[in-house]
Design brief:
By secondary structure, the chain is an alpha/beta fold. Strands 3, 4, 5, 12, 13, 14, 15, 16 and 17 form a 9-stranded mixed sheet that branches. About 40% of the residues lie in helices and about 10% in strands.
Length: about 650
């Protein structure tokens, strides 16, 4: 029997491991629709078998053929490791490179059963956000990382480790691309086809870039959104009602965010396992299965001004319609089902059970599409009735309004070009956070020790409180929200998987926090720390219906910012970088990039963090400034005042009267 380190170094075993039984206790990905021709199925099998020695092909061929026919993909379940999947302390990983060990830790965190949505299919969140396409890719990648030195770089092509290439110590240890298609081959069915062939994958955002930290990441963003949503309608969260849907993957963060914000939250979910998981983890406080009982419970919570989160085990459309019938007032409304993936399990239509829907999406995809679009029209109609009574509804960047419009729902404004409801980035996160340079900075304590996380929380709090003393009035609220968040992070029990934390900070805050961490590591007070961020940030993502939806100069459909971001990060010192097609709003709808950086207490780490983090934020602020966003113009001027080597082209505004 090989130990953990020996197993990683083995990679794909020479002798075939025993075939594994399909584990029905695990939350599995839905069956993907059949889309390959007979010749393409043969090609998919050839593509899968190329990972294995020819003597194994006769054994594996019928097995992989069965997987392709049964699940619509070849996952290679036989090669799933027997060891427990979780982020081990960094010293437990084999290898020549500390940076590579950190990446192995982060990969295993993404596949931790407590973190991943469909761990046996290597899917972290969003229904199709994959770390790898199959288990052979995982085994080979871990072997490469365990062998590599700081003079090599691993190239990752949509989950496939192309190989180790000669490099240098300041280059990224890993460069990741996911789903980078020729533009004309970037429709939803293209993903289905080429993913089934085994030649590309949907990396989502932080799934395929090894930077997911469980729902905590979106808890923070949702908390900030809900708080600012209530500020927008000039109402205290206490006694206010927030209605939304989705408890799987990232969307499971919504009820926890509502609890932290202090309101009443109702979150509908059709998948019993997702509901059970979030309830057992404490992310949602109560579960109600009957919509009449739900109405009674919510009325009482509103009257008593409770802080309570309730999971409704059923379809969100029933909630919107029932609350309208009962004239139950909703203050904030949104949706976070995975509508970037509407035809393959991202959205379940009303009127069908969970099991019926799964069967229909695989066996009768055309009818399933009709049911989804019918459901979206009903949901939009019910939402319209509530907004007419004063509900503030916003699109939470999951492509709800986009798909509803494609379904023919009544969600267009009078001009027929724009949606009648704003994206939360347009109304809240863009002008209040991203334009000022505030976005989701995060870190992971690679020691695995809770006490290290506590120390980093204290360090970050101290840095933010010091910065707030001299911060301009324009960003005082952002600073205070994050100080409050970080002080309450421990008591809210946000850790799932690795010892990780997130907060919103600007470039100055990120750099000073990172420097303080590096000094603490150098002094032996804490172990090494991995820095990262959500791709959903100031600079990382070009997404016309989400991250860049408050860009009004016509450039929101361009992707220069995301590409420039990942190129710039890679030569300024990131440990690994990633660039993806797809993400929270869908395949072909967004380009997004991210990074990871290991702090080890060294002078090299101190040099890299300052150079890379400054660019990683100010790249986006400069683009937002050029789009004539006032908050970004303010932020980039402030950045130029603080850094003499920064010189950014500023826009000249045109008098509107001249244009008329």
């Amino acid at each position: 029997m090989l130990d953990f380190k020996q197993t990683l170094l083995q990679g794909i075993p020479n002798e075939l491991p025993p075939k594994k039984e399909y584990d029905t206790t695990i939350n599995h990905a839905p069956k993907r629709k059949e889309i390959l021709s007979e010749d393409e199925k043969k090609l998919a099998l050839q593509n899968a078998l190329r990972y294995f020695e020819p003597q194994h092909h006769a054994t594996l061929l019928p097995e992989f053929k069965e997987e392709l026919e049964t699940y619509g993909r070849i996952y290679m379940y036989r090669f799933r490791p027997d060891y427990k999947m979780y982020a081990r302390p960094i010293d437990e990983y084999p290898g020549e490179s500390q940076q590579a060990k950190a990446i192995m830790l982060m990969i295993q965190n993404n596949l931790d059963y407590a973190v991943a949505q469909h761990p046996h299919e290597l899917i972290t969140y969003g229904g199709n956000g994959a770390v790898f396409q199959n288990w052979a890719q995982y085994l080979l990648t871990m072997k490469y990382l365990a062998e590599m030195t700081d003079e090599q770089t691993l190239a990752m092509y949509s989950g496939h480790p192309m190989g180790l290439f000669p490099s240098h110590k300041d280059a990224p240890r890993v460069v990741v691309t996911n789903g980078m298609m020729i533009p004309n081959y970037s429709q939803p069915d293209d993903w289905e086809k080429f993913n089934a062939l085994g030649v590309t994958q949907y990396g989502q955002m932080t799934a395929g870039s090894y930077m997911y930290i469980g729902p905590q990441g979106i808890v923070h963003g949702t908390t900030i959104t809900v708080l600012n949503g209530f500020r927008k309608i000039k109402k205290e969260p206490k006694g206010g009602l927030f209605v939304t849907s989705g408890l799987g993957g990232m969307s499971g963060a919504q009820p926890k965010a509502g609890d932290i914000a202090g309101c009443v939250t109702v979150c509908a979910e059709v998948n019993p396992k997702a509901t059970q998981t979030r309830h057992s983890q404490g992310w949602v406080k109560e579960v109600i299965e009957n919509v009449d009982e739900l109405v009674i419970r919510v009325r009482k919570a509103q009257e008593d001004k409770e802080t309570i989160s309730i999971a409704y085990a059923g379809n969100i459309v029933d909630v919107w319609e029932k609350f309208d019938e009962e004239n139950l007032h909703i203050d904030l409304g949104s949706d976070q089902t995975s509508l970037h993936n509407p035809w393959a399990g991202g959205y379940y239509p009303v009127g069908l059970s969970y099991e019926e829907a799964n069967e229909m999406m695989a066996d009768n995809p055309e009818q399933f599409k009709k049911e989804v679009q019918r459901s979206l029209k009903r949901q939009a109609a019910a939402i319209n009735k509530h907004t007419a009574k004063g509900t503030y509804f916003f699109d939470y960047g999951n492509a709800f309004l986009l798909e509803a419009s494609r379904a023919g729902a009544d969600i267009m404004s009078k001009d027929g070009k724009n949606f009648k409801y704003p994206s939360y980035v347009q109304d809240i996160m863009g002008p209040m956070c991203f334009d000022y340079g505030f976005g989701p900075f995060r870190w992971v304590c690679t020691s695995g020790k809770a006490e290290d996380l506590l120390k980093t929380d204290e360090i970050a709090t101290s840095v933010l409180e010091e910065l707030k003393k001299d911060a301009p009035e324009e960003i005082q609220q952002q600073m205070q929200d994050n100080i409050t968040w970080i002080k309450g992070a421990q008591e809210n029990k946000l850790v799932v998987g690795s010892q990780a934390r997130i907060l919103y900070a600007d470039a100055e805050g990120r750099i000073k926090i990172a420097k303080a961490f590096n000094e603490a590591i150098k002094a032996g007070k804490i172990g090494p720390v991995v820095l990262g961020r959500d791709h959903h940030d100031v600079s990382g993502t070009d997404s016309p219906y989400r991250e860049t939806s408050n860009i009004y100069d016509g450039s929101r459909f361009t992707a220069d910012m995301a590409i420039q971001n990942v190129i710039g990060d890679s030569f300024r010192g990131a440990t690994w970088v990633s660039i993806h097609n797809g993400g929270g709003v869908g395949w072909g709808e967004v380009i997004n990039g991210g990074f990871g950086m290991l702090l080890d207490g060294s002078k090299d780490a101190a040099r890299r963090l300052e150079s890379m983090l400054f660019w990683d934020v100010n790249n986006g602020i400069s683009r937002r400034s050029w789009a004539r966003n006032d908050e970004a113009i303010f932020a980039i001027k402030r950045a130029m005042d603080n850094e003499p080597n920064l010189k950014v082209t500023l826009p000249n505004k045109v008098d509107p009267s001249l244009l008329s």
